Inverse folding.
């Protein structure tokens, strides 16, 4: 049983997932600090409060519906999505585009493609 546990722990996929999770948590903390310490104070300059938590509260029968807190969370989410897209996804796609080899590209004149072209040309006539 100890051998099976060791095999489970040292699998390459598990290590990659763990590293990815740690990096995701670090990125979320970084973007969260960006939103909380930079973006929301700018919101405070514009709207008089550093967040929307107390801006839009509707009270019905002693129940508070906090639309402003949702808007604050939405700003945080959009900021994280923006950062991940522009600082992770786009650079990775550019890297993949540069590193593609000719072998990964489909061959232009494969036998099937030639046959399909001949059939198309025959149908046109």
């Amino acid at each position: 049983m100890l051998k099976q546990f060791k095999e489970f722990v040292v699998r390459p996929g598990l290590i990659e997932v763990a590293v990815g999770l740690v990096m995701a948590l670090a990125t979320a903390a970084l973007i969260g600090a960006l939103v909380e310490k930079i973006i929301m104070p700018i919101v405070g300059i514009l709207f008089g409060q550093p967040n929307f938590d107390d801006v839009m509260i509707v009270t019905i029968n002693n129940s508070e519906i906090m639309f402003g807190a949702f808007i604050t969370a939405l700003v945080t989410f959009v900021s994280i999505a923006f950062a991940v897209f522009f600082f992770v996804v786009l650079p990775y796609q550019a890297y993949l585009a540069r590193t593609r080899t000719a072998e990964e590209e489909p061959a232009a004149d494969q036998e099937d493609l030639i046959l399909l072209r001949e059939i198309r040309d025959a149908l046109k006539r």
About this structure: The domain at 2-124 is CATH 1.10.1200.120 (Non-ribosomal Peptide Synthetase Peptidyl Carrier Protein; Chain A).
